[in-house]
Amino acid sequence: RSIAAASAGRYCPYFPYCRRTAVYQRILVPVDGSPTSALGLKEACQLARLTHASLRLIHVIDELSFALALQPYGYYAGELLDMLRKNGTEILQTALATARQQDIKADSVLYESLDKTVAQRVLAEAAEWKADLIVIGTHGRRGVRRMMLGSSAEEVLRNATIPVLLVHAPQGTS
Description:
single chain; alpha/beta; 5-stranded parallel beta sheet
């Protein structure tokens, strides 16, 4: 059964445990504006409603996104960083609105992490904020595509000291 059905009161795989011990009170959700990120946020919101948790939404401007954005455009580094900040702020505002429309307590943080990878920044934020769970939308790439593009979600999963929920994109959409 789905978590959506559980939140509607029809079935809860975690009940009565989730109500009795409040399993997840602080859920960290990295967002990047992609459809898979939106799926991760949707799942995190469903869990937050079930457990009355609060969300921390984070967006990371990292060295790779900075370098990739720099290549095709003739921007100066300062202009480009401003553009990435503006984009990150918009992504966070949209995600916050999604959570707040569902009466979920949420806040957001924008990081410029040119010295750390996205995964390292997510793991550091999870520790600093004392998150109980990390929810990440992932493309689920395999083979050469994964090797070339890397996987922040996989790095978080391998190195996290708290539970991580990976939300995969539907088959054929990655």
